[in-house]
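sry for the spam today, last one i promise. struct tokens for design, 206 residues
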């Protein structure tokens, strides 16, 4: 079943069927704004490295990470994130409450093929990726037959949107590249589940 467009602006529909909807808007924000946001986030986000266990050993995640709450907003949230989140929420009419950031320093930084953990996102809501900085290729692969592979070159200022259903049927990732590429920052907007404690506080019980 085809799903309605989430955008008021022009979009490229990459997939739209029973396995989910993937859409791409190349010029979601103008180049000057994208460059300004990139410069601010590069300097102000408290970037961190992480270790993850894989194949009985710990490896360093090949990119720098950051994250902020949107609802309620983190006190130390950079203005670029506040502005970007307002635009994304308004465009998609989705109550995003979290943004995760990835800083790809060069072609050696990457993210392996994966789908989001379903327990970390609310069912029925999409995931939106805003790209800043250098162009990097996103690879999307179907998990079952027909095993199609899709590639999207994510431009600065672009928005890439995956429906919840795609996390059941596709993996996505940013592969390493030997080509000379510059720095890139991505902002991944998600609707995360509200924990019982948070929900209770919002009702004024604490």
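last one done:
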């Amino acid at each position: 079943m085809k799903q309605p467009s989430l955008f008021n602006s022009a979009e490229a529909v990459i997939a739209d069927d029973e396995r989910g909807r993937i859409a791409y808007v190349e010029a979601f924000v103008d180049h000057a704004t994208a460059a300004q946001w990139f410069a601010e986030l590069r300097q102000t986000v408290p970037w961190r490295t992480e270790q993850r266990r894989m194949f009985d050993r710990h490896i360093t995640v090949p990119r720098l990470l950051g994250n902020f709450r949107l609802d309620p907003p983190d006190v130390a949230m950079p203005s670029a994130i506040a502005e970007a989140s307002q635009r994304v929420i308004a465009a998609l009419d989705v109550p995003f409450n979290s943004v995760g950031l990835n800083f790809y320093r060069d072609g050696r930084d990457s993210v392996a093929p994966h789908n989001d953990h379903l327990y970390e996102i609310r069912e029925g809501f999409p995931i939106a990726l805003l790209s800043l900085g250098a162009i990097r290729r996103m690879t999307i692969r179907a998990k079952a037959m027909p095993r199609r592979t899709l590639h999207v070159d994510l431009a600065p200022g672009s928005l890439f949107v995956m429906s919840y259903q795609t996390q059941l049927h596709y993996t996505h990732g940013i592969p390493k590249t030997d080509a000379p590429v510059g720095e890139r920052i991505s902002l991944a907007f998600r609707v995360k589940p509200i924990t019982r404690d948070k929900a209770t506080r919002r009702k004024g019980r604490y």
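Residues 24 and 161 are 6 Å apart (CA to CA). ok im logging off now
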